[in-house]
Description:
Helix content is about 75%, strand content about 5%. It is mainly alpha-helical. It has one domain: Arp2/3 complex 21 kDa subunit ARPC3. It has a two-stranded antiparallel sheet. The longest helix has about 30 residues. It starts with 9 loop residues before the first helix and ends with a helix.
Amino acid sequence: MQLLSAHIPAPWLQLSWLLALVLMLLVARRAAWFMLRDRANLNVFLGATVAVLGLWLIKTGIKPGLAFHLLGATALTLMFRPLFALLSVGLITAALSVWQGEFAAFAVNWLMLGALPVGVSWSIFRLVDGRLPNHLFIYIFLNAFFGAAVAILMVGLFSTAFIALSGAYSLDYLRGEYLPYFLLIAWSEAFLTGMLITIMVVWRPEWVATFDDHRYLNR
């Protein structure tokens, strides 16, 4: 899912960097940085970031720029809320971009693999939190399981449209050889996210910022 700079038109790269800079300023201005001054919080944040980096390294691909891997963006969003989730994905994307020599494509990949799934996951959480009862199973199945599946499916649709419009690969090829695999990945992403969030809310609820055991368990 990580795009190559050679496949992206120069004007698109410039626009993506502009949008990424705006997002960076938003994170810098509004993130609750004091939370990371606590050593326990910092350890959890860094540990989760390294774990998701490991997920991204376990990947397969069919052609250059058409790789598949799990995202972990929904789990990061539920654990740290959207701003720190964006920061975590940004660190992962930057590390891989430098390692692969594709830093020019950092902004596009951060927006596609970070801003998009984090935004989708956070929107689903806010909708569920505001409209449905505070119930543990609702929290896990809708926010974690369903949210993760929808988030990665949106990444698949967006990346397919982006790559087709950029001219790197034809839409017919992407619809037949690229997009369908996201249905399989969505199940794996949903299962892994749901399992991890379930374990954390039971054993380490303080690691999940969007979970309040008084609301979800003491009713």
